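Morning F.,

Quick status update on the modeling queue. The single chain you submitted on Monday has been processed. Sequence for confirmation:
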Amino acid sequence: MSLWGFMRVSQRLSLYPSLARSFGTSLWGSGRSVGQASTLFGWDLGHRHFRNEVIKDSTGKAKGKGKGRGIISITKAAADEMLQLLEEHSSSSPEANVLGIRIGVNSSGCSGLTYTMGYAEEVGDDDTVVEEHGVRVVVESAAEVFLVGTEIDHVSDELCSEFVFRNPNAKESCGCGQSFSV
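Structure tokens below.
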């Protein structure tokens, strides 16, 4: 068993507040600070990584453009984690009007694009709403072209808890898996 076990970042920081500065890029991801994570999601979501997996065919080349598939699909594991995050957020911020999880893409990282994830408080006219396994996910309209056919999963082990984006549009990913290019 590890020293940290399955403690959330908020629990770790309440025990050891001096650790806050060291969490900067190691737990949140390259180019983002813990302050940004806590602003966007609160500490309980800030410790999760986003990892991109480039889907390759038998020849080792990146596969297709996701044609003939929906914008995104969500695994049961990802939906369960999202529902837990929404429940925790609702109980800690009862005044918030959260409709679901918002997914997007930003220009950032060494490969050019990174995934964004936050709480959706509104749905834009051009946004797409996907509901699977009881969770509502709002896909930002500008991100749709990059996300067509993407499967969102959630994996955990004793060292890490992360959302994994299996994106058929991604041609390559950086070494840490935090960013991708199409």
